[in-house]
Amino acid sequence: MRHGKYPFILSFLALPVGLYAWLVILPFAQAFQISLTDWSGSSNSFNYIGFDNYVNLFKDERFVLPALQHTGIILVVMPVVTIALGLFFAFMLNLGGRMRRGRIEGVRGARFHKIVFFFPQVLSVAIVGILWKQVYAPENFGGLITGALTAVGLPAPVNGFLADKRFVLAAVIGVLVWSAVGFYLVYFSSAIASIPRDLYEAAIIDGAGRVPMFFKITLPLLWDSVQTAWIYLSIIALDVFVLVYLMTPEQGGPDASSEVVGGVIWKYAFKYGEQAFASAIGVVLFFAALSLAVVSLRVGRRERIEF
Amino acid sequence: MATDTSTPTEAPARPAQKPPRPEGNVLNLFSQGFLWVWALLVIVPVVWIVMTSFKTSREIASDPLALPEALHWANYANAWTNGNIGSFFLNTLQVMVFSVTGTMLLGAMAAYVIARYEFFGNRLIYFGFAAGMMFPVFLALFPLFKTLSNVSLLNTYTGLVLVYIAYSLPFTVFFLTAFFRTLPSGVAEAAVVDGAGHYRLFFQVMLPMAKPGLIAITIFNILGQWNQFLLPLVLMNRNPDDAVISQGLANLAMRQGYEGDAGALFAGTVLAMVPIFIAYVIFQRQIQAGLTAGAIK
């Protein structure tokens, strides 16, 4: 068995590592290099111009600055709302029911709710985009919300929610939360299920209500899961683009009011032929993701509670 | 067995006890209320779009909330023939048969070696894969586009399959490495004593033992690759007939803007939703477990 260990290892690693290096690592490395040039992407000639792209990036008031601001807003709002709702629903589902014979129970129909809540997670983003674009559509295009608002006599935005600068970003964030909540509900649910029930029963005997129970028992014991969820959601938030592409006018409009970093990279790279500039924005995004992961791992560290 | 005693059908009769004043009724009502609000938030748009898909385009615009006057099946015929939904399905399947198989095979091979063999560079390779989970794919889009075009794989399914595999590897390897580490080494040692080589050990002993992990991550990859939009948008943009399902739907949505056949668009959307819905209802337990598996150790 000793002999042939290295040939075996090599034969198993060659393909996956080779493919990964060729199509993932190398393109990323090239992007760093391209970001220091003035390459348009179409010709073969380019010059190294140092960090000029990075300097110009923060002067681009048309796309990049709004995009940074919007991605920042999404990065703060989306994970917080999703985690809060996910935790709340998971707690309700598992511990929000009646009490029978001194035991806390989940609500009736918990299984049904889980199935329903999770469903958006399996829908492809194209379907979600088309669905919600129509839900938000103006009334004369048959929008659901505008139609319902008018039906009960309330004012609705004339051009629908997506063509309205005031609503478009919130509308996109709403859809992101809508599709993510179910996943975190199921995720937090299984974490809650692994907390021993006697902890809760002891708390009941001590006369604790459900609210202190949530903050004093559930939340501290779920801290690890919340932290993981936060990292996942932050990465999703940084990569938001497809929904904006599918739903909003001009893929980031109106007037760049739903422009996001991913969308700006795509626009500069594939519409305006400014590869170098697009790569520089990408590098900024890369370091944002990296620092997020590092920060959350450092700050979030707490003593793990064994049970 | 002549004396058939195996059917004690009368289960121990449950004493018809009155629950002693159930507590938490108010809370129960409160939580049911909130849960139902969200459930409706999921159900209503989906049901509404199904309803809308049976309306004529004029009905859709004029009265969004009303039920369709008659079931307008022509929308579905249009989506299937003009919208090409059927061929988008086949395109996607054609890609995924290879990309999912390839991802699982290569991912399992790499993860197994990383998890159970010591060699120089083991950690480096592991972290190299794990770091890939975090990279924003936008950064790599253009160099990737160039790379594929240099080897004439741009706008080919082969290229797309290779890219899908490469970009699915980080999570697959990360997850399966953790899984292979948890497998007991006793069985492996016994197999080695019996004279199994490295390859037989992997294919005949370790892979079957890793089945639960493999199933979970396969489901994860199937859903992920089925829903992929950004990569085909950039790497398969020449011939609209070659589009995969999510891309085909998006093209249909863009065209709908000026052709004005909203009914066909929603019928196409529903057609794309139906297989997912059926699979989800049947396998919802496995799907939920598979998708959350990566996060739960």
Q: Ends of chain B: how far apart?
A: 47 Å
What about the largest sheet of chain B? none
CATH class of the largest domain in chain B: Mainly Alpha
C-alpha Rg of chain A, in Å?
24 Å
Oligomeric form: heterodimer
Task: Kindly describe this structure.
The complex is a heterodimer of chains A (307) and B (297). A two-stranded antiparallel ribbon of chain A has the order 1-2. Chain A has a single domain, classed as MetI-like (MetI-like fold, Orthogonal Bundle), CATH 1.10.3720. The mean pLDDT of chain A is 86. Helices cover 66% and strands 1% of the residues of chain A. With 307 residues, chain A is mainly alpha-helical. With 297 residues, chain B is mainly alpha-helical. Chain B contains 13 helices and no strands. Chain B has helices at residues 25-52, 57-62, 74-81, 85-116, 122-131, 138-150, 157-182, 185-193, 198-209, 211-226, 230-235, 245-259, 262-293. Mean pLDDT of chain B is 84; it is low at 1-22. Chains A and B meet through α1, α3, β1, α4 and α5 of A and α1, α2, α4, α5 and α6 of B.
What's the SSE blueprint?
The complex is a heterodimer of chains A (307) and B (297).
Chain A: H1 5-34, H2 52-57, H3 64-95, E1 99-100, E2 103-104, H4 110-122, H5 125-135, H6 144-151, H7 168-193, H8 197-205, H9 210-221, H10 223-238, H11 242-247, H12 261-270, H13 275-299
Antiparallel strand pairs in A: 1-2
Chain B: H1 25-52, H2 57-62, H3 74-81, H4 85-116, H5 122-131, H6 138-150, H7 157-182, H8 185-193, H9 198-209, H10 211-226, H11 230-235, H12 245-259, H13 262-293
Helix pairs in contact in B: 3-13, 4-7, 4-10, 4-12, 5-7, 7-10, 8-9, 10-13, 12-13
